[in-house]
Design brief:
Layout: E1 4-11, H1 15-26, E2 29-33, E3 37-41, E4 49-52, E5 60-65, H2 69-81, E6 87-88, H3 91-97, E7 101-106, E8 112-117, E9 144-149, H4 156-162, E10 166-171, E11 177-181, E12 189-193, E13 198-206, H5 209-220, E14 226-233, E15 239-244, E16 250-255, E17 268-270, E18 275-278, H6 286-302, H7 323-329
Parallel strand pairs: 1-4, 5-8, 9-12, 10-17, 13-16
Antiparallel strand pairs: 1-5, 2-3, 3-4, 6-7, 7-8, 9-13, 10-11, 11-12, 14-15, 14-18, 15-16
Bound molecules: fe (iii) ion.
Length: 330
């Protein structure tokens, strides 16, 4: 049904700050669209992330991609039959979103969701805002979105039964979080239970670990920019850090995310996590910070680790595993 997270948009009037953040830190390409809209490219598509001054601060929308017009009609009918109010958006909005057509509806927490098909491809090559190797998107979508919700249970039937999200894994302590996939990306959506419904973070994945490390250095030069330090997640194996955006949420800059096979994957309950190491959350109080550290130190004592996930072209196979073979190659 849904294939990928195609685009995301956020309301903010801090367009200058967003342009600076998006291009200089993350590596997005900024595209100006009039006075009210700032669009970011991540790849050959015309836009992936947009910041809209005409929407209020805190407003957000997420564009979920379907295959074609028939799939979009089928989804609209399915939502309608389930009693979800669906709007067939006019061509003017489709033009603004740079897609062929879209519908809109809301999740039970009031997040605006859009489903679309036919994303427009730009005729000019992607030109990143700083020198990076690029973003891992394609069939995996632009990355993942993580929302805070008052009740995960209140969201589950909507996202799983109706929209077809499949549970990857979940964690019940020290906080509750559920991770969902719609393609081989380990999660395109996660829900964290919290006192308020809100936006937690948007993750983008870079091709090179050094892209993330250099973003980290750039982030270090701003006071209070890094809200989660460099670390590696237990479930999607992402090596990442989280930077505070000009709005009230974070962008996670990641590298080396695992893929799962949606045809055979079985959801698992995680007892460890969310991180193998690192990922200190700056907002935690002393007790929670100490508890998170103790959990990571337990993983360290247990020798918990995971192989790196690499793409063709960004690794060299080392010697060192077999003295006899290394000697033969002498
Ligand atoms: Fe994340």
């Amino acid at each position: 049904m849904l294939q990928a997270l195609g685009y995301a948009g956020f309301g903010s009037d801090r367009l200058d700050d967003w342009r600076q953040f998006g291009t200089n830190l993350v590596g997005f390409q900024a595209v100006e669209r009039g006075n009210s809209l700032l669009a970011f490219r991540m790849d050959d598509r015309k836009q992936r992330v947009v910041i809209d001054r005409s929407l209020g601060e805190g407003a957000r929308f997420f564009g979920w991609e379907v295959r074609d017009a028939a799939a979009l009609d089928a989804l609209a009918a399915r939502l309608d039959a389930a009693g979800v109010a669906v709007t067939a958006e006019p061509q003017t909005l489709a033009d603004t979103r740079r897609v062929a057509a879209l519908i809109s509806f809301s999740d039970p927490a009031g997040n605006r969701l859009e489903a679309f098909h036919g994303a427009e491809i730009d005729t000019t090559p992607f030109a990143p805002g700083r020198s990076i190797s690029g973003f891992r998107t394609g069939a995996l979508g632009l990355g993942h979105v993580v929302l805070t919700v008052k009740s995960i249970e209140a969201m589950l039937p909507f996202y799983t039964d109706l929209l077809g999200f499949r549970l990857s894994d979940y964690i019940e302590a020290p906080f509750r979080a559920y991770f969902f996939h719609v393609n081989p990306r380990h999660h395109s959506l996660a829900l964290i239970e919290a006192p308020r419904d809100g936006m937690h973070h948007l993750m983008v994945e870079l091709f090179s670990l050094d892209d993330v490390g250099q973003a980290y250095d750039i982030a270090l030069s701003d006071e209070d920019r890094i809200h989660v330090t460099l670390g590696r997640h237990t479930n999607d194996f992402m090596t990442s850090f989280y930077a505070k955006t000009p709005s009230a949420f974070m962008v996670e800059c990641g590298w080396g995310g695992r893929e799962l096979d949606p045809a055979t994957w079985q959801p698992v309950k995680m007892e460890d996590g969310p991180s193998l190491w690192g990922h200190e959350r700056v907002w935690l109080n002393a007790d929670d910070r100490a508890a998170a550290r103790e959990m990571r130190l337990r993983l360290a004592r247990e020798g918990k680790r995971a192989p790196v996930q690499v793409m063709e072209g960004n690794y060299n196979l080392m010697s060192g595993t077999c003295a006899w073979w290394d000697g033969m190659k002498g």
